Amino acid sequence: MRHILIATHGLLASGARSTMEFLIGNVDNVDYITAYVDGQKPINEQIEEYFAKIPQEDEVVIFTDIKGGSVNQKMIPYCLRENTFLVSGFNLAVLIEVTMTPEKLTNDFLKAKIEEAREQLCLVEIEKNNTEENDDDFLL
Questions:
Q1: Closest among 10, 9, 24 to 92, alpha carbons compared
Q2: Is 0.85 surpassed by the pTM of this model?
Q3: Where are the annotated coiled coils located (predicted)?
Q4: Cα–Cα distance between 107 and 117 in angstroms, integer?
Q5: Residue 98's pLDDT band (cuts 50, 70, 90)
Q6: Are 5 and 33 in contact (CB under 8 A)?
């Protein structure tokens, strides 16, 4: 089985999971860790509890918010675990793609999906027209 763990500073992780559920439905295999949030257990404890419940043979993909950030650094030791991958920086596209793909994950597959997700990050530029128009010009 594949498990997805989204681990971030603050509430970004819970929001990402919530949005995934809204868009694709059942995301029972997606968990999150919200680090450094008042009322939450310390991050090390949250991580230990998470991995204690995951069977050793299962795949785990960890998504963190900032490469080199404290959350990302705390996940690095868990990458020694077989079938465990760590992706730093993420967007919704890569989360959904990795969650929904049925095939076994490899480094090459994940690198390709990360590159595809990067392509979705862009500045949307709209050319401004200097002519005077009113709303009626757009109605047909």
A1: 24
A2: yes
A3: none
A4: 15
A5: very high
A6: yes
Domain range for 128 is 2-138
Distance CA 43, CA 49 (A): 10
The closest alpha carbon to 46, from 58, 59, 56, 31, belongs to 31
How many distinct structural domains can be found in the chain? Answer: 1
Confidence band of 18 (pLDDT split at 50, 70, 90): very high
CA 26 to chain CA centroid, Å, is 16
Write the single-letter amino acid at 5: L
CA dist., res. 36 & res. 29, Å (int): 23
Residue found under tokens 């868009």: 23
The CATH number of the domain holding residue 24 is 3.40.50.510
Can you tell me the distance from the alpha carbon of 64 to that of 6, in angstroms, rounded to the nearest whole number? 6
Q: Assign 130 a pLDDT band (cuts: 50, 70, 90).
A: low
pLDDT band at residue 138, thresholds of 50, 70 and 90?
low
* Cβ(113)–Cβ(119) below 8 Å: no
